[in-house]
Each structure stands twice: as structure tokens, then as C-alpha cells.
């Protein structure tokens, strides 16, 4: 993993809340506290995993997306958005609320978009990187960022086994996993739905039919146009032809009928609206201005003081080595 493998600089964009949630549940049993006696196991787990990611990828800049915990434009639009999730542990909430201050104190860049979420920051980071000729790696434990995968942007989806046991998802890998081109993943997700966000999918479609539809018929714009103009005949023909070639069951009529059912298109459009991330957020990255938050390397004394407050010497030593190496992307 090399930040300049192809001559382009590299931006890491981190979905901080998803990592904090993951490490809260994985490390709560440690009851680790910082030098002030406050809960710090989730913060430490996030910092440690990001340090390992920086060590592996050697980026030129790192930005962290945070959720606005006081307002939600998506919840205003859909009051049941993410309804049904368990109430957050107060000890996790405390660490979530301290995350921005910790990262800012280090000199890393954080963005808390008003009314929005960390995924909107990830989406904006992917677009920023492409516009500036950089590469981008999005670091998250959620699927939301899969919609931003492109030639310039990959996703490190953190799962069990740490960064070296986690997949680095690229367009070919996404297509192998879901059977749809990366550029169609958002449409796939809108058809499938997302139970974790309390968003049902289009009734009767599911992952299998969604993948077949997007791979063999085309983008959903063309699918809806065929339903409107020709009663879905092209949908039926394309899916049945695919079934004949693969020896599978004919599904064309079933898929067409489910898409034509009352409310199907409205459900898809509703999901698409909720799932579409903002890509135009100001990130405050000025790579040509030394010392700008988010740019590596960082001041070693500052790193030692801030990470040292988490009270784990091995992590402090790793932080000083990883964050203060100059230049980061040529290690």
C-alpha cells in the first residue's frame, strides 16, 4: 500500500462514528480510561486502527467525518430514519462527543456537516480527491460508502481482523460481491433497501433481482422509461434472454410486475433520496499550505501530548512514528 503508487497523492477519509461504535462494543470489556479517568476504549480503538491504516497506506492527508448529533435533515424528511436502533450507551455518547476535540488537538482535519453525517463527508472527500487529481481511500465499517467507489476511490471496510484482515473494495471487487457495476451500487441499494436505516426495499425485488436488473437491463432511469413507454417489454426480454443463456429460471415477467406494482417506483425514489450523500461539502483541505489541519506530517511533541493522554504507551509510540514522519507518502 503506497500513497504514490501511481504518482497521485492520497487522501484518507474516515467515518469516525462507525469506527467508534465498532470499537466501543469490541473493547468495552477493557474499561480503559484516559489520564483524566474518562472512558477511552472506543477512542483508543479508533485512533489505533487509524494509525495502522496511515502506516499501511502512507497518505498525504487525513480527514475525519463526524455526524451532527444535534440535527438531522434526513430525519426531518423521514422521522422513522434509523428508527428501531438501540439507544446509545452513555459511555459511547461521551466518547463520540469528545472525538472532534481529540482529532483537532492532534492537527488532523474534522468536518461535522450541519444536519448531515460522516458519510456525506466521505462522499465529498471522494469527489474532492477526483477533482484534485488525488486518490482516495474511505475507511468505514458500514456499506454506505460503497456508492462512492470508483477508479479513484476505494473503500477499506473494517471488519474482524483489523485493517490487514479487511477488504479493500474497488470497482471489480464490488461487482464480484454484488453482481452490479460500482457506478450502479446506489441504485442497487435503493432497490434492496437498508434495514439498518429502517428503509424497506422495493417489495419482491431483493438483492438477486436487483443485481440482474441493473446488470442486464441498464440503469433504473432506462428501466422506468421502458415501463412507462412499452409496459416493460424490454425488461422481460433482457432478463429472459439472460436466463436462457445461463440455464436459469425466467424472471422477466415477475420483475416487471413487481416494479409496476403500486408504490414500487415511489419506494425506490424515496430510498434514493435518503441514501444519496452530499458531495459538495467544504472540507477545508488546502494541500499547498503547510501546517493546514489534516496534512501530514504532524508535530511530534503535539502528537505525543495528545495521544499520550489516552494512556497507552505503545499507541503513543506508534502515533509519533506514523504521524510525524516526513514525508508521509514516501516511507
What does this structure look like?
By secondary structure, the chain is α/β, with parallel strands linked by helices. The chain has 2 domains: 10-178 and 277-330, Rossmann fold, CATH 3.40.50; 182-275, DNA polymerase, domain 1 (Orthogonal Bundle), CATH 1.10.150.20. Helices cover 48% and strands 9% of the residues. It has 14 helices and 8 strands. The chain has helices at 16-27, 41-57, 73-77, 90-106, 118-131, 171-178, 185-192, 206-216, 220-230, 233-246, 252-260, 264-275, 300-308, 313-323, and strands spanning 10-15, 61-65, 109-111, 135-140, 153-157, 168-169, 193-194, 199-200. A hairpin with a 4-residue loop joins strand 7 and strand 8. Helix 1 crosses helix 2, helix 2 (41-57) packs parallel to helix 14 and helix 10 packs antiparallel against helix 11 (252-260). The longest helix is centred in the first third of the chain and has 17 residues, at 41-57. The mean pLDDT is 93.
Descriptive labels:
331 residues; Rossmann fold; DNA polymerase, domain 1; 2 domains; 6-stranded mixed sheet; two-stranded antiparallel ribbon; 8 strands
DSSP summary, beta strand count: 8
User: What is the CATH architecture assignment of the largest domain?
Assistant: 3-Layer(aba) Sandwich
Number of domains: 2
Give the class-level CATH name of the largest domain: Alpha Beta
In CATH terms, the superfamily of the largest domain is 5'-nuclease
Spatial separation of the terminal alpha carbons: 11 Å
The average pLDDT value, as a whole number, equals 93
Number of H/I helices: 14
Sketch the major β-sheet: 6 strands, mixed
Can you tell me the residue ranges where pLDDT is under 50 for at least 5 consecutive residues? none
Amino acid at each position: 500500500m503506497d500513497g504514490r503508487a501511481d504518482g497521485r497523492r492520497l487522501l484518507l477519509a474516515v467515518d469516525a462514528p462507525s469506527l467508534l461504535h465498532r470499537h466501543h462494543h469490541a473493547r468495552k470489556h477493557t474499561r480503559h480510561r484516559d489520564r483524566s479517568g474518562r472512558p477511552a476504549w472506543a477512542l483508543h480503538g479508533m485512533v489505533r486502527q487509524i494509525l495502522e491504516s496511515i502506516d499501511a497506506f502512507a497518505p498525504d492527508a487525513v480527514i475525519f467525518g463526524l455526524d451532527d448529533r444535534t440535527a438531522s435533515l434526513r430525519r426531518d424528511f423521514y422521522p422513522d430514519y434509523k428508527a428501531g436502533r438501540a439507544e446509545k450507551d452513555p459511555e459511547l455518547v461521551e466518547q463520540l462527543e469528545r472525538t472532534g476535540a481529540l482529532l483537532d488537538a492532534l492537527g488532523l482535519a474534522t468536518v461535522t456537516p450541519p444536519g448531515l453525517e460522516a458519510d456525506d463527508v466521505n462522499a465529498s472527500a471522494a469527489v474532492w480527491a477526483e477533482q484534485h487529481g488525488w486518490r482516495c481511500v474511505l475507511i468505514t465499517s458500514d456499506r454506505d460508502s460503497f456508492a462512492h467507489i470508483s477508479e479513484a476511490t476505494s473503500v477499506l471496510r473494517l471488519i474482524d481482523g483489523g485493517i490487514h484482515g479487511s477488504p479493500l473494495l474497488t470497482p471489480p471487487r464490488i461487482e464480484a460481491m454484488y453482481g452490479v457495476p460500482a457506478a450502479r451500487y446506489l441504485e442497487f441499494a435503493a432497490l434492496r433497501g437498508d434495514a439498518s436505516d429502517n428503509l424497506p426495499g422495493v417489495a419482491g425485488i431483493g438483492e438477486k433481482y436487483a443485481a440482474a436488473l441493473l446488470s442486464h437491463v441498464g440503469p433504473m432511469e432506462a428501466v422506468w422509461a421502458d415501463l412507462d413507454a412499452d409496459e416493460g417489454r424490454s425488461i422481460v426480454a433482457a432478463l429472459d434472454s439472460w436466463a436462457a443463456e445461463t440455464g436459469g429460471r425466467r424472471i422477466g415477467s415477475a420483475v416487471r410486475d413487481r416494479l409496476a406494482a403500486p408504490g414500487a417506483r415511489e419506494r425506490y425514489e424515496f430510498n434514493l433520496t435518503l441514501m444519496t450523500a452530499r458531495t459538495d461539502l467544504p472540507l477545508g483541505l488546502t494541500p499547498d499550505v503547510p501546517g493546514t489541519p489534516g496534512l501530514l506530517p504532524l508535530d511530534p511533541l503535539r502528537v505525543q501530548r495528545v495521544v499520550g493522554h489516552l494512556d497507552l504507551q505503545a499507541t503513543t509510540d506508534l502515533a509519533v512514528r506514523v504521524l510525524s514522519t516526513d514525508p508521509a507518502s514516501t516511507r
